[in-house]
From TrEMBL:
InterPro entries: Class_I_gatase-like, DJ-1/PfpI, INH-QAR. Coiled coil: none annotated. One of its GO terms (biological process) is regulation of DNA-templated transcription. It comes from Chryseobacterium carnipullorum. This is DJ-1/PfpI family protein. PANTHER family: ARAC-FAMILY TRANSCRIPTIONAL REGULATOR, DJ-1_PFPI DOMAIN-CONTAINING PROTEIN. Residues 11-184 form the DJ-1/PfpI domain. Pfam families: DJ-1_PfpI (PF01965). The lineage of its organism: Bacteria, Pseudomonadati, Bacteroidota, Flavobacteriia, Flavobacteriales.
Length: 210
């Protein structure tokens, strides 16, 4: 992640879509929110949907109203792509509308220099975008084989919590998103910030990335 301390607020866009996994979304989101509480003005966190209509999260337990839609959102410095249940992820890979709208937006932003940070099966969602090609990547253990199949030009890493490739960061399953978010905060703000957030979370932090 580029070092923007003392220069500007970092816009962090959290993608939301039908059946998004709640902890994939809220775990990293809360890490960045807490960092912004400790260091006001550092991060501007917001959600982005295809439209601003309410989005149903996993198992239809609640809905999220996106802050912005993909056509009118603030220019992101980072896009966080949470995952979903594998069956939904595989369906989205065959959904031309989702590919040509939501994931095209992610790809266009990536091509313009935006960091893309995927959580869990969110990495699998990018399999047809070209973003993963030539990179070391990972995802939830349930989809590692599928990730290899769909991304022959990538090197799939197993047994790690996250993989940092600079402009692309991918993680293993669910709670690994919290670990990677803490890692990115540390990379940007230093270990003191990470320690403060871990203490607030009362979290057993695992720092085992690549």
């Amino acid at each position: 992640m580029k070092d923007v301390r003392n220069t500007k607020t970092v816009n962090v866009a959290f993608l939301v879509y039908d059946q998004v996994e709640v902890l994939d979304l809220n775990g990293p989101l809360d890490v960045f929110v807490k960092a912004n509480v400790l260091y006001p003005g550092t991060y501007n966190c917001y959600t982005v949907g295809t439209t601003k209509d309410p989005v149903r999260v996993e198992a239809n337990t609640m809905t999220v109203i996106p802050t912005y839609d993909i056509k009118n959102c603030l220019k992101p410095d980072m896009i966080v792509v949470p995952g979903a249940n594998p069956e939904y992820v595989m369906a989205y890979l065959q959904d031309d509308d989702f590919q040509n709208t939501v994931l095209k937006w992610v790809k266009d932003e990536y091509d313009s220099g935006t960091v893309v940070f995927t959580i869990c099966t969110g990495g699998m969602l990018l399999s047809k975008t070209g973003i993963l090609a030539g990179h070391d990547i990972t995802t939830h253990t349930m989809l590692l084989d599928a990730l290899e199949k769909y991304n022959p030009e990538s090197s799939v890493k197993r047994g790690v919590r996250y993989v940092d490739q600079g402009q692309l960061v991918t993680t293993a399953g669910i709670t690994a998103g919290i670990d990677a978010a803490l890692y990115l905060i540390g990379k940007h703000l230093g270990q003191k910030a990470v320690d403060a957030i871990v203490k607030i979370f009362e979290y057993q932090h695992t720092n085992s990335g690549k």
